[in-house]
């Protein structure tokens, strides 16, 4: 028997996720403020010496940070440096490995959903577009294109001998712009916002971001997954409309071929869980065993979203 829709959720994953996104921004800003420095590259105070933020227990950005003397590096940034310099240092691997292990255990694209400041900004842009009633394409670029974008960035880094994405990353434009007043990637950020407003829904995060492509490549191994209760599903399509990653990643569960969202694209953002009126979707640990091939598919396939 199908459950009666219930739109009253006592808890929203989106609330927690937005709180974490803001907390990450504040975490990186805190050392500068505690040391008496300003944000956006603005100096504070007179000629008196002020402490160096790098001397504090935590300091850095999403590209490179230090926690209690332990250096952490963006693994995709490390790959770019290796390609650009044509050299390899063991320290680079050791400093990037904790990040790879953490997101690999959780879910690699959890970075995109829970940490990336560009995603937070684009969710606000998404809300603005809906409020203005602007219609855009739902999928102008295939979602796996970002895998090829990531490979292209590495190839260009090798050819140009510079870490290419670091020079135009909209993620750095937000993160490093707030912290240090960096303008690198600012034009890219403007183009991404314009594309979100007038071209395609979530087109950067879903299809073009090379960092998202890198995390998609290692994303299937995560322990945090969206699980599906087929007895509760009423096929209302609310989850597909809410999905930040790409609605197609929900197809294997909605057509009852699987019981958990396995796609490396999944951000574990919880938007689909929040949107489900019957609690057919939930966040959980581990991956259920795939149903056998003899499992009977649902007679009702979710409709394709229109733009």
Automatic annotation (TrEMBL):
Name of the molecule in the record: 4Fe-4S binding protein
Keywords: 4Fe-4S, Electron transport, Iron, Iron-sulfur, Membrane, Metal-binding, Transmembrane, Transmembrane helix, Transport
Region listing for Disordered, in residue ranges: 287-307
Superkingdom as given in the UniProt entry: Bacteria
InterPro entries per the UniProt record, alphabetical: 4Fe4S_Fe-S-bd (IPR017896), 4Fe4S_Fe_S_CS (IPR017900), Electron_Trans/Redox (IPR051684)
GO molecular function: 4 iron, 4 sulfur cluster binding; metal ion binding
Entry's Gene Ontology cellular component terms: plasma membrane
Pfam families assigned: Fer4, Fer4_5
Positions with biased composition (Basic and acidic residues): 287-299
Location of the 4Fe-4S ferredoxin-type domain: 224-253, 257-286
Record-annotated membrane-spanning stretches: 20-40, 92-125, 145-165, 177-199
Organism listed in the record: Gordonibacter massiliensis
């Amino acid at each position: 028997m199908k459950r009666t829709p219930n739109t009253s959720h006592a808890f929203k994953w989106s609330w927690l996720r937005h709180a974490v996104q803001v907390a990450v921004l504040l975490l990186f800003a805190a050392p500068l403020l505690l040391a008496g420095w300003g944000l956006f590259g603005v100096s504070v105070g007179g000629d008196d010496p002020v402490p160096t933020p790098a001397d504090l227990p935590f300091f850095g950005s999403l590209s490179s940070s230090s926690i209690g003397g332990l250096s952490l590096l963006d693994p995709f940034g490390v790959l770019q440096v290796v390609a650009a310099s044509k050299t390899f240092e063991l320290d680079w691997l050791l400093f990037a490995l904790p990040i790879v292990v953490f997101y690999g255990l959780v879910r690699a694209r959890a970075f995109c959903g829970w940490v990336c400041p560009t995603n937070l900004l684009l969710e606000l842009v998404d809300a603005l577009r809906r409020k203005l009633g602007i219609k855009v394409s739902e999928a102008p670029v295939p979602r796996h294109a970002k895998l090829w974008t990531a490979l292209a960035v590495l190839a260009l880094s090798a050819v140009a001998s510079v870490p290419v994405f670091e020079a135009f990353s909209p993620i750095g434009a937000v993160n490093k712009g707030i912290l240090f007043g960096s303008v690198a990637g600012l034009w890219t950020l403007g183009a991404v916002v314009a594309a979100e407003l007038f071209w395609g829904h979530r087109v950067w995060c879903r299809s073009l971001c090379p960092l998202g492509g890198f995390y998609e490549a290692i994303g299937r191994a995560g322990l945090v997954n969206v699980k599906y209760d087929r007895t509760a599903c009423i096929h209302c399509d609310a989850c597909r409309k809410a999905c930040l990653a790409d609605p197609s990643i929900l197809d294997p569960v909605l057509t009852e071929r699987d019981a958990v969202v396995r796609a490396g694209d999944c951000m574990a953002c919880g938007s689909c869980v929040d949107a489900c009126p019957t609690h057919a979707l939930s966040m959980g640990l581990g991956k259920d065993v795939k149903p056998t091939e003899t499992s009977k598919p649902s007679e009702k396939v979710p409709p394709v979203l229109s733009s």
